What we know:
With about 230 residues, the chain is an alpha+beta fold.
Amino acid sequence: MKKLLLLSLLGLWLGSSFANGQTVLAFWDFNGESPTSAVLGDGLEYDASQGSGLLETFSSATTGTNFRIDSDGTSLNSLDGVGSDDAMRFQRGPRWNNGGFEISVDMTNFNSAELSYATYNTGNTTGDYQFSYRVGTEGSFTNIGSPTTIPLSNYALVSTSIPSAVDNQEDVFFRVTFSNLDGSSGNAGHRVMVDNVQVTAIPEPSTYAAIFGLFALGMIVWHRRKRS
Ligand SMILES: [Ca+2]
C-alpha cells in the first residue's frame, strides 16, 4: 500500500507539472472545403480539421451572394504540417453586419480557453469584430471586450482569452460578430478573410491526476501479478 500511495503522489506531482500548457481543443484550416462559389452564408457548418468542434456561419442577409471558401489562405496561426491553402471569405461587407461565425466546443475537464484566428479586411475603410460567448444551448451571448477594427490589407492574428464561466462546461459557444462594415467600394473591396481558427485550453489538473493515478494502480497490479 505504501508503494501505491507513493506512486499516486508521483502521479499528482507529474499531473500538476504537465498541466501548464495550452492544448488545441479544436482547429479549422478550411483547406479543401466548399463552397468554392459564392452562396448566401447562413448556417454553413464545418467540423474541426483537428480536435473536436463545430464552426457555423450566421447571417441575416437575404439577398446577394456573400460567402465562399477562397484560395487566399495563410500559414499564420496554423499548426505544424498544415498548408495555408484556403480560407473563409465573407464578402460584400454590409451584408455581414451582425453576422459572422459561431463555434461550439466541449470544455469538460478544460479551463483557461483562448480563441484565435488569422484575418484581414481586403477593403480600405471600416469593419469591426466582436468576441462573445455562451454557456448552454440557449440564451444570449455575453460580449468579451469591445468591437475592434479588423486588420487591413494583410493577415494578422486576433485572439482573446475566454472568461472562466466556460471552464469545465460541456456546451460552450463562441461567436465572432462583424459590424460597421462599409460597402462603398463594392464587392471585391470588402471581403473579410478568416483562416486557422483555434480554440485552445488547459486540461484540469485533476484529469492528469486521474490518468496518472490509474497508471499507478496498473503498475501495482502488474507488480503483484508478477510476484505471484
Ligand atoms: Ca487555410
